[in-house]
Specification:
about 160 residues; Rossmann fold; 3-stranded parallel sheet; about 15% strand
């Protein structure tokens, strides 16, 4: 059981670790990607992407120019997964990270281009992306959203409450 050092990842890992009587290890390589916009209010429709003061950061969507390079993210995540695989030899390992690093790792393993449209990520809240190994080789990738029905119920409850 290994997680990103960020609080929300540690909080996600704690109940899983408790269920199996495991400590939560920390792996810095599982951290969220570095981003120039971190801590700033930036969202679609708020005008921040039309603000000329931000354009120098947005000049290269492929690398990307606003933060940690996708290749660096993928390689550090791949190293973290392999370290966990070795440590858990013959058993399963659980790693808790963040959406962009997980999606970048998946695209890297699938040998797809790393830059992508964030709206099309298959990496929802509380989802599980599984990497299946035969020895040191990745032989499959799985994806599930075990709590999707709870998220849908919560959204329905919020909508009903507002009506």
């Amino acid at each position: 059981m290994v997680a990103s050092p960020l609080e929300r990842a540690q909080q996600t890992a704690e109940p899983i670790a408790a269920q199996f009587g495991l400590p939560v290890g920390v792996d810095e390589r599982l951290i969220e990607s570095a981003n120039w916009f971190e801590g700033k209010k930036v969202s679609p429709g708020d005008g921040s992407f039309r603000d000329p003061r931000n354009w120098w950061v947005l000049r290269d969507p492929v690398t990307p120019s606003w933060g940690e390079a996708y290749r660096v993210i993928a390689e550090r995540m791949f190293a973290a997964v392999h370290a966990a695989r070795v440590a858990a030899e013959g058993r399963e390992a659980v790693l808790v990270s963040h959406q962009l690093p997980i999606w970048t790792l998946r695209r890297y393993v699938e040998r797809k281009r790393l830059w992508h449209d964030p709206r099309k990520r298959q990496c929802g809240l509380a989802s599980l992306t599984s990497f299946h190994f035969d020895g040191a080789k990745v032989v499959g990738i799985g994806y599930s959203e075990p709590a999707a029905h709870l998220i849908a119920l919560s959204a329905t409850a919020r909508t009903a409450k507002g009506a």
